[in-house]
């Protein structure tokens, strides 16, 4: 099932929440800053461990990697870096890869429920309507093609985003 709700990603009681991460993996603004603030210092410690070991240069757009959730009510955080339109990253396939890779990492963890923000619709300059279309279409196709997830929930911070994602979900289901 794929759904869209208005809410706060930091309070979702799901197996995984997806972080629209800064490429450094060391915290940033928006969703990333909110998740790090709510999780407490344990999340940053795990991200620093990733930088020391498997991801010394951080993440590039479209990649995804998991950490524990520290003080968040979920079990894991899957970090992905959305494409930054201000830096010329305007390929919808790169945005879709953020979600496809995040869902693959979540399935690999054994997760059944995943919360996702509007990746790249904020400071990274993507039009929210386009983000809604790309992400909902990608989620619907991924859930059909790869069983194992019971719920992919887009958790959106405004009524406008919620409306855009709900409309896009309706189109994706046709």
What's the structural blueprint in terms of helices and strands?
Elements (H helix, E strand, L loop, with lengths): L1 E5 L9 E5 L9 H10 L1 H12 L11 E5 L7 E5 L11 H18 L3 E4 L11 H18 L5 E6 L2 H15 L1
Pfam families: Macro (PF01661)
Organism: Phycicoccus endophyticus
InterPro entries: Macro_dom (IPR002589), Macro_dom-like (IPR043472)
State the oligomer.
Answer: single chain
- How many whole angstroms does the radius of gyration measure? 15 Å
From N to C, what is the helix and strand string? Answer: EEHHEEHEHEH
Termini separation: 14 Å
Mean pLDDT: 94
CATH class designation: Alpha Beta
Structural domain count: 1
**What structural category do the secondary elements indicate?**
alpha/beta
CATH topology: Leucine Aminopeptidase, subunit E, domain 1
Biggest sheet statistics: 6 strands, mixed
Q: Give the name of the CATH superfamily.
A: Leucine Aminopeptidase, subunit E, domain 1
Strand content: 15-25%
Record the strand order, biggest sheet: 1-6-5-2-4-3
Q: Based on DSSP secondary structure assignment, what is the total number of beta strands? A: 6
How many DSSP helices? 5
> Per the principal axes of the C-alpha atoms, what is the gross shape?
globular
Residues in helix, %: 40-55%
Residue stretches low in confidence (pLDDT < 50, at least 5 long) are: none
- Which CATH architecture is right? 3-Layer(aba) Sandwich
Organism: Phycicoccus endophyticus
Protein name: Macro domain-containing protein
Pfam family, one: Macro
Domain Macro: 1-173
């Amino acid at each position: 099932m794929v759904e869209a709700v208005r809410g706060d990603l930091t309070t979702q009681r799901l197996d995984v929440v997806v972080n629209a991460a800064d490429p450094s993996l060391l915290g940033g603004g928006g969703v990333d800053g909110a998740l790090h603030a709510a999780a407490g210092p344990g999340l940053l410690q795990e991200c620093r461990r990733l930088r020391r070991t498997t991801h010394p240069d951080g993440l590039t757009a479209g990649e995804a990697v998991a950490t524990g959730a520290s003080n968040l009510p979920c079990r894991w955080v899957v970090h992905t870096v959305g494409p930054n339109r201000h830096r010329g990253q305007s390929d919808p396939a790169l945005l879709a890869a953020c979600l496809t890779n995040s869902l693959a990492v979540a399935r690999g963890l054994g997760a059944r429920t995943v919360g996702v923000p509007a990746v790249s619709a904020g400071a990274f300059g993507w039009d929210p309507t386009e983000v809604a279309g790309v992400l909902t279409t990608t989620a619907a196709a991924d859930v059909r093609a790869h069983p194992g997830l019971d719920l992919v929930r887009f958790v959106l911070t405004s009524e406008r985003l919620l409306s855009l994602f709900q409309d896009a979900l309706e189109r994706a289901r046709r």
